[in-house]
Design goal:
By secondary structure, this protein is of the alpha/beta class. The protein has six helices and ten strands. Strands 4-1-5-9-6-10 form a six-stranded mixed β-sheet, with helices on both faces. It has a two-stranded antiparallel ribbon with strand order 2-3. Strands 7-8 form a two-stranded antiparallel sheet. The longest helix is centred in the C-terminal third of the chain and has 20 residues.
Length: about 230
């Protein structure tokens, strides 16, 4: 059995009720649920939440919400891996789970094809996880820090004269999905580790949604991508 697990707490602070707030005509969580359904990768799509309203919205858009997430896995400091491990352990009561994919509720730009690519990457070789990444828009080797007077210093002064095109491209977690083998989740193995593979997404389809400014930018990207699709 392959399952999708969408973690969605009810206690968002910076954007209240973020996971079910209207985003371009649907609750935010409805978009990643739709991508999971579109992919055809999953036997079950499960939302892990501590919130009754989120449960109802998830069910209305085609996901399951079969349990209420325990209180000790629902605070601001709980990492992702224990939440997914809890859902995998729950699902295994009804049958063996081979793969589980964590999909963030805040990933409205996710596409079904991305999830299909991720599963294929996981199955290539001896891997624990395959997850979405994207490139930094500027070489991080030339990053700056500011002191309390506003003066600048290079993080790595040895790169002061290096041309941008001569620096290695670098990547960061795109915060959209994390395919993993059930045993990796249950063993709480780290995701950012050597036994993980990267699924590279274009920057135009990646946006964290943590602040009102992030939300506005995500909606602009979503509408831009929708317009581009309808024009082709």
């Amino acid at each position: 059995m392959n399952i999708a697990v969408i973690p969605a707490r009810g206690g968002s602070k910076r954007i209240p009720r973020k996971n079910i707030r209207d985003f371009c005509g649907k609750p935010l969580i409805a978009w990643p649920i739709a991508a999971a359904r579109e992919s055809g990768c999953f036997d079950r799509i499960v939302v892990s939440t501590d919130d009754e309203e989120i449960m109802a919205v998830a069910r209305a858009h085609g996901a399951e919400a079969p349990f209420r997430r325990p209180f000790d896995l629902s605070d601001d400091f709980t990492p992702t891996v224990p939440v997914i491990a809890h859902a995998v352990a729950w699902a295994q009561r009804t049958g063996p789970v081979e793969r589980a994919c964590c999909i963030y509720a805040t990933a409205p730009l996710l596409r079904g094809d991305d999830l299909i690519r991720g599963r294929a990457m996981l199955d290539q070789g001896d891997r624990d996880y395959a997850f979405s990444v994207t490139t930094f828009p500027f070489p991080i080797q030339r990053a700056l820090r500011l002191d309390d007077r506003g003066h600048v210093a290079m993080i790595d002064p040895t790169q002061r004269e290096t041309r941008s095109q001569d620096l290695d491209e670098t990547y960061h977690d795109a915060g959209q999905f994390y395919w993993g083998r059930a045993e990796a989740w249950l063993a709480h193995r780290p995701i950012l580790a050597a036994r993980s593979a990267a699924v590279v997404l274009p920057r135009k389809r990646v946006q964290d949604i943590d602040t009102p400014e992030d939300w506005e930018r995500a909606e602009l990207l979503f509408r831009m991508l929708g317009d581009a699709t309808s024009a082709t």
